[in-house]
Design brief:
Layout: H1 2-6, H2 18-37, E1 42-45, H3 56-59, H4 73-77, E2 80-84, H5 89-92, E3 102-109
Antiparallel strand pairs: 1-3, 2-3
């Protein structure tokens, strides 16, 4: 039936099922869009992400009582932040990571007209 085709099967790992993986991505995008439209900033990370500290002083929040580290003021101005699999500290200091694949294992979206 149509409903059976629309259901993502719990019996199969969705990353190996292209159609289910795309459905999961569409559901995720829809949830993020609704949160942004409601005025929420969104920070999401994969389950295998380890946070060694509070990310908000680096990412930045808007408002009078939110601290932003002085070395992170440009990140606090960004509407979209996405992680990369590039682990090269010297190259990270360069002007952008255009040649590297982005990875949405960590994704931040600030609620704004741009996002």
């Amino acid at each position: 039936t149509k409903q059976e085709r629309q259901t993502i099967s719990a019996e199969k790992y969705y990353r190996t099922d292209g159609a289910a993986f795309k459905k999961m991505g569409a559901v995720k995008a829809s949830v993020l869009e609704n949160m942004l439209l409601a005025g929420y900033d969104v920070l999401i990370s994969d389950a295998d992400t380890v946070w060694f500290g509070d990310p908000w002083p680096i990412i930045g929040r808007h408002g009078p009582d939110h601290y932003v580290r002085p070395d992170s003021v440009h990140l606090a101005e960004a509407d979209i932040l996405v992680s990369t699999d590039c682990i090269d500290f010297e190259e990270d200091l360069g002007p952008g990571l255009i040649a590297h694949e982005h990875n949405t294992g960590i994704l931040f979206l600030r609620s704004s007209n741009i996002t």
